[in-house]
Amino acid sequence: GPMTVGDLARLLRREASEVIKKLMSLGTMATINQEIDVDTISLVSEEFGAKVKVKEVIDESAFEELEEEDTPEELKERPPVVTIMGHVDHGKTTLLDRIRETKVTAGEAGGITQHIGAYQVEANDKKITFLDTPGHAAFTTMRARGAEVTDITILVVAADDGVKPQTVEAINHAKAAEVPIIVAVNKMDKPEANPDRVKQQLTEHELIPEDWGGETIFVPVSAVTGDGIDELLEMILLVAEVQEYKANPDKRARGVVIEAELDKGRGAVARLLVQNGTLNVGDALVAGSFFGKVRAMINDRGQRVKSADPSTPVEVLGLSDVPEAGDPFMVFTDEKKARDIAEKRIEKKRQKELGASSRVTLDDLYKQIQEGDMKDLNVIIKADVQGSAEALRGSFEKIDVEGVRVHIVHSGVGAITESDVTLASASNAIIVGFNVRPEPQARVTAEQENVDIRLHRVIYDAIEEIESAMKGMLDPEY
Ligand code: GDP
């Protein structure tokens, strides 16, 4: 929630009276329980020599509060939303193209397909929505911005190449998001294809095939010949049936921005995925912090449409500015209300920050543990060699302080990448680097996203740091 003078004093490790005095010297009279805004917090913190990072997060819950609840009778089945992930060159793009070609144009000879960030196909008279940007980077960037878009992940593994580092990353990203995984064993047309090896390797990551007594669906496919694509789509529908994805099409729409750009001729163009309700031409909406009125909508076949129901991607013209991928959007009954909300959200976006959406840092870990709002400390490990990564994982997992456990979201070998930072941001994790450094872009993103990166050269030091942070013995870093 909002931050009070007392909260700030605790964070700064100062007496409340000192903070109040400082506020007075800045011309503000305040009491210990008074709420203070972000600008004041930054100002006071700087006076005490502490740097405050303001994180620009738009919390989707702000919209959820405004949304009417759906009764069970109002909820209707909606198409599943699918993301394709996997190692580079294992065939993600080819698979996406193949599915689109074979299914979108069926019965619609020469149907123009348009890139709008996602597309829908039909199989067995049911629809499936695919997000068009393959890979876990896009997936987790959305999550880091608070958007849970994907229902099902297709993990593509090339049968001739097997499990690779980015395969493991993709698994961990999907697991962190608690999204079901279907494995597509691709390139089955190749003579050197070895699907059993893929199965064997994936069991090490707790993806056990059904025919080996596990629960993970494996589908052999070839994105090039098209073999197995129908089975893959059937399996997606099967998972969707079990999970019962539902939404209420009979109300104003809410969803998420998949992409947006400024188009010279058309102005702000936003590609949206409707998650609940139905979006109509003429609707007044807020996307991110921008107001807009839907002037026109274009579907994934390049056709103008008047409405878009749940799980449908559409391109929307008429926003006042370009929102960001992952921003939530919502329709409001009247234009004035939408404008007001857009303004409030800009304000709120600035004010929310330091409270609920602040990241875990080791420095305030103890406080959070004391307040009982953390049971797992999420950690991402990057090390120079596999042996060190394993050793750290083993040691971290053994630490048990006041009922708090370390949960390893991801561990891998190599430099700390931007993808690691995004995953940390989305999972509220800290990153421990052992004999590795962050890549330049990872450093920049970590700074922006307020992700705590700890670098070590001695395993014992890394363990001790985590342990003492959990015990609240870490010296503040001011
Ligand atoms: P991405 O990096 O995962 O998106 O992989 P691409 O879709 O770009 O595919 C990488 C390469 O593998 C390309 O040369 C594709 O033509 C090839 N490829 C993809 N799927 C298959 C397949 O099923 N069989 C064969 N033989 N080649 C494939």
- Name every ligand kind in the structure: guanosine-5'-diphosphate
Strand content bin: 25-35%
Query: How far apart are the termini?
Result: 24 Å
Oligomeric nature of the chains: single chain
Helix content: 25-40%
Rounded Rg: 24 Å
Structural class: alpha/beta
Strand order of the largest sheet: 3-4-2-5-6-7
Uncertain ranges: 55-62, 352-357
Q: Report on the biggest sheet.
A: 6 strands, mixed
Q: What does the overall shape look like?
A: globular
Number of strands: 22
Given the structure, what is the number of helices?
A: 15
Whole-number average pLDDT?
Answer: 84
GO cellular component, one term: cytosol
Main location: cytoplasm
Organism: Melghirimyces algeriensis
Family: Belongs to the TRAFAC class translation factor GTPase superfamily. Classic translation factor GTPase family. IF-2 subfamily.
Keywords:
478 residues; alpha/beta; six-stranded mixed β-sheet; six-stranded antiparallel barrel; binds guanosine-5'-diphosphate
